[in-house]
Each structure stands twice: as structure tokens, then as C-alpha cells.
Specification:
- The protein is of the alpha+beta class.
- Strand 4 and strand 5 form a beta hairpin.
């Protein structure tokens, strides 16, 4: 009986998992997106930032700096192609300075233009073997991203990717631990 009460007490005092269900990192990602937006937004040029993560061949708009960013990422993922996925495939940042001059993704470009997007910056996130990811920034202005903005976002993406790799690794280890316990 004493053993049972110790076991119950041990369960009560175990630390909480940083991601309780083992998969929810949307709050963490939303914070990263908000920071990225704040770093490059300026008066008259509000930047919306979304983060798309690809795991198991499925692109998911997991977080955004705001509802508009998340909707824009979901729109792009719905077309199955666009600056985000092109940047991911190439492994290099992709700047579309003026969406009206872009001809690679006609259906997506039309839909994004209807949502008020005029320029896009997509920067891949190096997540190692854990997943693939892209930081997507949207501006309502043509040429909405300066050379300094691009450099800032690239540096931010490199730092953010390190944190995100760690978060995804913790999730994977949590799943393994959970699978072993069952």
C-alpha cells in the first residue's frame, strides 16, 4: 500500500511536458512569427508573417503573426505551389518584389492579389531531419522588402530554426517516451 501512495505521489510531482499533447507548438511558432513581423514592419508597411511546416509530405500553416498571415499561408498551401514551396524546394530565400509581375504561379498570384498581397518574402528554415519549414512574409506594398529587410529576415530565420529544431526534437522524444510507456 505504501508503494502505491509513493507511486501516486511521484506521478503528481512529475514535471509537465513543455508541449502537453506532444504536438502543439503553435503558440511558440506564433511568437516567432510575431517577432519577425515586428522586426520588418514599418509605418505604412505592415508585414504579416506565417510559418509553414512540412512533415510527412503535408504542408501545414501552423502559425502566423495574425489571422491574415495564417490565411495567406493556408491559401498558398491550398494551391500546392507558390513562393513558399518554391523556396523550400530550392533551399534558398525567394523574394517576389511585385506580385503583379510574377508569372510562375498564376492562380495563386491572382488569389493573393485579391487578398491585398503585393510582395512576398519566403525564407526556408533549416530544421534538419525533424521537418521542413518556411517563414513567409507578406506585404501589401510592391517592393515591400528592402535589402536590409531580407538580410534581417534571413538572420532571424537562421536563429529561429535552431529554436524550432530543438522544439521539434523535444516533441519527437516526448512521443517516443509516450510510446514506450504504453
Amino acid at each position: 500500500m505504501a508503494q502505491d501512495s509513493r507511486s501516486e505521489h511521484h506521478q503528481e510531482t512529475q514535471p509537465q511536458d513543455p508541449f502537453p499533447d506532444g504536438t502543439d507548438i503553435s503558440g511558440f511558432l506564433a511568437g516567432l512569427a510575431a517577432i519577425a513581423s515586428a522586426r520588418v514592419s514599418s509605418p505604412g508597411n505592415r508585414i504579416h508573417t506565417g510559418i509553414t511546416i512540412i512533415q510527412r509530405e503535408k504542408a501545414e500553416a501552423l502559425a502566423g503573426s495574425d489571422a491574415a498571415a495564417r490565411a495567406l499561408d493556408e491559401l498558398q498551401n491550398g494551391f500546392g505551389d507558390g513562393p513558399c514551396l518554391t523556396a523550400l524546394r530550392s533551399g534558398a530565400p525567394l523574394l517576389v518584389p511585385d506580385l503583379t509581375c510574377e508569372h510562375r504561379w498564376p492562380a495563386y498570384v491572382k488569389a493573393a492579389d485579391e487578398k491585398g498581397v503585393s510582395s512576398i518574402l519566403a525564407v526556408p528554415l533549416d530544421l534538419g531531419d525533424e521537418a521542413e519549414g518556411v517563414l513567409n512574409l507578406y506585404s501589401g506594398r510592391s517592393n515591400g522588402f528592402s535589402d536590409d529587410d531580407v538580410s534581417t529576415v534571413e538572420a532571424f530565420a537562421e536563429q529561429a530554426a535552431g529554436s524550432l529544431r530543438l522544439a521539434l526534437h523535444i516533441i519527437r522524444l516526448s512521443r517516443v517516451r509516450s510510446d514506450l510507456a504504453t
